[in-house]
Amino acid sequence: MSGIPVFGLSSDQRCELNCRAVGFRFYVRQSDRVIDGTPCGPNQTSVCVTGQCQSAGCDDLVGSGKERDRCGVCGGDNSACQLISGLFQHSLSRVGYHKILEIPPGATKINVTEMVKSRNYLALLSRSGRSIINGNWAIDRPGMYEGVGTMFMYRRPNEITSTAGESLLADGPTNEILDVYMIYQQLNPGVHYEFLMPSENAVNAQRPKDNQLDVNAVKGQTGSDANGRTLEGHERSGVRHPTPIPDNRLPAAPPANRVREYNWKLSGSTDCSASCGRGRRFPVFVCVQRISHTHVSSALCDSSTKPSAQEEPCNLQPCPAFWDIGEWSECSKTCGLGLQHRQVLCRQAYANRTLTAHSSRCQHMERPETSSTCQMKICSEWQIRSEWSPCSVPCGVGQRSREVHCVSNVGDIVEDDECNMKLRPSDAENCDAGPCTKSWFFSEWSAQCSADCGVGVRTRSVLCLSNHISSLPLEGCGSQRPAQAQPCSSGPCESRTEWFTGPWSQCSADCGLGSQQRAVVCLLSSEDGVSVMPAFECSSLDRPLSQQSCSTRACGAQWLHTDWSACSKTCEAGYRVREVRCLSDDHMTRSDQCEPALKPHQREECNPEPCLPLIDEKCSDKYFNCNVVVQARLCVYDYYQTACCASCRRVSLRRPRS
To answer: What is the rounded radius of gyration, in angstroms, for the C-alpha atoms of the chain?
Structure first.
């Protein structure tokens, strides 16, 4: 909260302490008076005494010495300055910035006030080009602004309850030329202005110089001078200027022989600035012929003798109370049903101010709602898109998974953070496929000896059943593998040759289809024993298989792929492709059980080296202006391809190849 004394240029200035809460538009009166001795405003000699703004004496701020006159001279008689005042009522035609007044350096007690509220705005620009208030098509908030050596108070009355227009107030003195503009948007209701100038400069105080507009801070419109001509030089920056400047620009004093012929006459007053709650109005003086009282141009009267337009209060009755409605707050939830709130205050306007009143004064009107439900959008929800997958192991503890997605109200899969993470269903869990056996299992010995006579072998199947997780099954069963073969004899036999086979080796694949081998030799059996013979000695006998396919267990499914295709380009980064499929154990049917993360690449880059252009010595430009042929895109024709061969060839090489 911050408090400032309220001050103005009227005769009944009051010093109240008003504060505005940060972020709100309304003011709250904290006290009906401020501490005695508080300056009424920046650069002012007046101070606040018992709640009223009073002129300070010359000896001290609140002493009883000599008083300062309106020119600020201690004990003066108001002769050191002249009051410059007028009413700008010129009709404008085009929307934009229009210069309406030029205030010279040294001006004090500046007051520029719009007679009736309108959609127009007042703007200030220093002659050095600095925007002070409402420049660059940006409307400033009411408040205090510094410029040209003084502080300006910018007032904009309540836009709902007040009919008073805008005003610009400053104590001065100014240190450079000050240009006053109107941002024109609707019919001009009239702008009253007044300020004090030292006597030697008062005559030509506010005559605008149409050929010296400096509008660097005001952009956006085309400019013209008083005769409708386009502004030259720096004036082309776009300011609209009224055409013509009205005749209330304070011309030079009329000749002595005209002073007695024309004089000022009270013709009425302006409309009240407010319909209720204490407005203000000003008398309007016109220049008339002294005898006939005929209305003539104000240039014929002596501006120094024009009476001062003193403010008069009007429409003092209080305004009816009303509900002041604030903006809705943001919805309490980003999706789903939430709440939003707004502030509703009973307000009442008086004396160009709007104060908070007791809610009982607004009983004649229905109180607006202060809270309301809101919904930005329908919340997304979790959806389970698949059943649980099979357990990852055939025995023991493994894992299984399923698809869980965050789905919007229209069925699209969205980011997980759009759903409530606390309610997310599990997409993975442990599974128990039963106990795993970690021992050697073997069958009975074969009943028949491998040899019909002599020494042979008998075999049996030996298998290690493990948890199928380790890549080394022997770790679970131990290194003492039971024998798969043992010698046997079917009795002595005659000398004969036969094929002898050794035991089959382990399957080459842990799962799926593999292969296994065994030794096959030609033996000669006789009473003396068994000896190895060359293979052709057994050629009359059917040779047993030395290799066969085998399968220990099903793999489920696995990724298979073809060979890479040829590269799409011989240079400059081509690519090659291959087909990748997830197939079941039989390698015949497609499957969706493969791990996506293990899928082999289907495409890869190849031949990254740059292409070397073919140099054709016969290809050259026959004309010097072949660049025009290229720009006109005529290389598609055979004639130009021949006449401008080199230029057309360079264009074709720069184009990306398909």
So the answer is: 52
CB-based contacts of 185, cutoff 8 Å, min separation 6: 95, 118, 119, 120, 121
Tokens representing 282 are: 């000003």
Who contacts 32 (Cβ-Cβ below 8 Å, separation ≥6)? 16, 51
N- to C-terminal Cα separation, the chain: 70
Report the alpha-carbon distance of residue 553 to residue 530 in Å, rounded.
Answer: 38
Q: Are residues 92 and 48 in the same domain?
A: no
Pair (71, 130) in one structural domain? no
Please, how many CA atoms are within 13 Å of residue 220, restricted to the half-sphere of its CB? Answer: 13
Is residue 465 a part of any domain in this protein?
A: no
In angstroms, how far is CA 325 from the centroid of its own chain? 28
Q: What is the pLDDT of residues 312-351, one digit of tens each?
A: 888 888 888 889 999 999 998 878 788 999 999 998 887 6
Tokens of 225: 């001078």
Distance CA 348, CA 328 (A): 22
Residue 122 in this model has a pLDDT that exceeds 90: yes
Closest CA relative to residue 259, chosen from 303, 194, 204, 297? 303
DSSP 518-552: --EEEEEEETTEEEEE-GGGGTTSPPPPSEEEEES
- Give the C-alpha separation, 330 to 376, whole Å: 10
Whether residues 304 and 329 share a domain: the answer is no
Helix or strand or coil: residue 299? helix
